[in-house]
Amino acid sequence: QVQLVESGGGLVQAGGSVRLSCAASGRAFSSVIMGWFRQAPGKEREFVAAINSIGSGTYYADSMKDRFTISRDNAKNTMYLQMDSLKPEDTAEYYCARHRSGTLFLLDSYDYWGQGTQVTVSS
Prior knowledge:
Structural class: mainly beta
Protein backbone atom coordinates (compact mmCIF):
# COMPACT_ATOMS: atom_id res chain seq x y z
CA GLN A 1 0.00 0.00 0.00
CA VAL A 2 1.29 3.44 -0.95
CA GLN A 3 0.53 6.54 1.05
CA LEU A 4 1.29 10.07 -0.11
CA VAL A 5 1.14 13.00 2.27
CA GLU A 6 1.49 16.59 1.08
CA SER A 7 2.60 19.48 3.27
CA GLY A 8 3.84 23.03 3.00
CA GLY A 9 0.77 24.83 1.79
CA GLY A 10 -0.60 27.99 3.31
CA LEU A 11 -1.35 31.64 2.71
CA VAL A 12 1.21 33.65 0.75
CA GLN A 13 1.22 37.07 -0.87
CA ALA A 14 1.43 37.49 -4.60
CA GLY A 15 5.03 37.41 -5.73
CA GLY A 16 6.01 35.16 -2.86
CA SER A 17 7.25 31.59 -2.76
CA VAL A 18 6.18 28.30 -1.26
CA ARG A 19 7.75 24.86 -1.24
CA LEU A 20 5.47 21.88 -1.11
CA SER A 21 6.56 18.44 0.02
CA CYS A 22 5.13 15.03 -0.73
CA ALA A 23 6.22 12.25 1.60
CA ALA A 24 5.71 8.76 0.26
CA SER A 25 5.57 5.43 2.02
CA GLY A 26 6.80 2.26 0.41
CA ARG A 27 10.13 1.14 -1.00
CA ALA A 28 9.11 1.59 -4.62
CA PHE A 29 9.23 5.38 -4.52
CA SER A 30 12.64 5.59 -6.15
CA SER A 31 11.53 3.56 -9.15
CA VAL A 32 8.46 5.53 -10.22
CA ILE A 33 7.59 8.77 -11.90
CA MET A 34 5.82 11.19 -9.60
CA GLY A 35 3.65 14.17 -10.39
CA TRP A 36 1.96 17.26 -9.01
CA PHE A 37 -1.54 18.38 -9.90
CA ARG A 38 -3.72 21.20 -8.67
CA GLN A 39 -7.40 21.97 -8.48
CA ALA A 40 -8.81 25.44 -8.11
CA PRO A 41 -12.35 26.02 -6.83
CA GLY A 42 -14.88 25.24 -9.52
CA LYS A 43 -12.26 23.94 -11.92
CA GLU A 44 -10.98 20.58 -13.02
CA ARG A 45 -7.81 19.10 -11.60
CA GLU A 46 -4.89 19.98 -13.84
CA PHE A 47 -1.35 18.80 -14.37
CA VAL A 48 1.43 20.90 -12.88
CA ALA A 49 4.66 18.94 -13.19
CA ALA A 50 6.20 15.48 -13.18
CA ILE A 51 9.63 14.05 -12.48
CA ASN A 52 11.23 10.77 -13.51
CA SER A 53 12.37 8.17 -11.03
CA ILE A 54 15.92 9.46 -10.58
CA GLY A 55 15.15 13.14 -10.92
CA SER A 56 17.01 13.67 -14.16
CA GLY A 57 13.94 14.45 -16.21
CA THR A 58 11.27 17.02 -15.39
CA TYR A 59 8.11 18.00 -17.20
CA TYR A 60 5.91 21.04 -16.68
CA ALA A 61 2.66 22.52 -17.78
CA ASP A 62 3.52 25.40 -20.08
CA SER A 63 2.03 28.04 -17.83
CA MET A 64 4.15 26.99 -14.85
CA LYS A 65 7.52 25.94 -16.18
CA ASP A 66 9.16 29.31 -15.64
CA ARG A 67 8.03 29.67 -12.03
CA PHE A 68 7.78 26.17 -10.59
CA THR A 69 10.53 23.61 -9.96
CA ILE A 70 9.90 19.96 -9.23
CA SER A 71 12.52 17.84 -7.50
CA ARG A 72 12.86 14.71 -5.42
CA ASP A 73 15.05 13.14 -2.76
CA ASN A 74 14.79 9.39 -3.06
CA ALA A 75 16.79 8.85 0.11
CA LYS A 76 13.98 10.62 1.96
CA ASN A 77 11.12 9.24 -0.14
CA THR A 78 10.07 12.83 -0.72
CA MET A 79 9.18 14.95 -3.70
CA TYR A 80 9.06 18.74 -3.74
CA LEU A 81 7.47 21.56 -5.67
CA GLN A 82 9.15 24.94 -5.36
CA MET A 83 6.75 27.65 -6.46
CA ASP A 84 8.05 31.16 -7.05
CA SER A 85 6.50 34.41 -8.25
CA LEU A 86 3.13 33.18 -7.14
CA LYS A 87 -0.02 34.71 -8.56
CA PRO A 88 -3.57 34.75 -7.19
CA GLU A 89 -4.55 32.35 -9.97
CA ASP A 90 -2.18 29.78 -8.46
CA THR A 91 -4.60 29.45 -5.55
CA ALA A 92 -5.62 25.80 -5.48
CA GLU A 93 -5.43 22.51 -3.68
CA TYR A 94 -2.17 20.85 -4.69
CA TYR A 95 -1.92 17.07 -4.96
CA CYS A 96 0.95 14.69 -5.46
CA ALA A 97 0.43 11.44 -7.28
CA ARG A 98 2.27 8.29 -8.32
CA HIS A 99 2.43 7.64 -12.03
CA ARG A 100 1.27 4.21 -13.18
CA SER A 101 1.45 4.37 -16.97
CA GLY A 102 0.52 6.56 -19.87
CA THR A 103 0.56 10.23 -20.65
CA LEU A 104 2.06 12.32 -17.87
CA PHE A 105 -0.50 15.11 -17.88
CA LEU A 106 -3.57 12.85 -17.67
CA LEU A 107 -5.15 12.10 -14.29
CA ASP A 108 -5.90 8.52 -15.28
CA SER A 109 -2.19 7.85 -15.65
CA TYR A 110 -1.76 8.05 -11.86
CA ASP A 111 -2.85 5.41 -9.38
CA TYR A 112 -2.15 6.82 -5.92
CA TRP A 113 -2.99 10.32 -4.73
CA GLY A 114 -2.38 12.34 -1.63
CA GLN A 115 -5.07 14.26 0.22
CA GLY A 116 -3.81 17.62 -0.99
CA THR A 117 -2.46 20.79 0.55
CA GLN A 118 -4.07 24.18 0.08
CA VAL A 119 -2.13 27.10 -1.32
CA THR A 120 -3.81 30.48 -1.20
CA VAL A 121 -2.19 33.47 -2.89
CA SER A 122 -3.47 36.87 -1.84
CA SER A 123 -3.26 39.90 -4.11
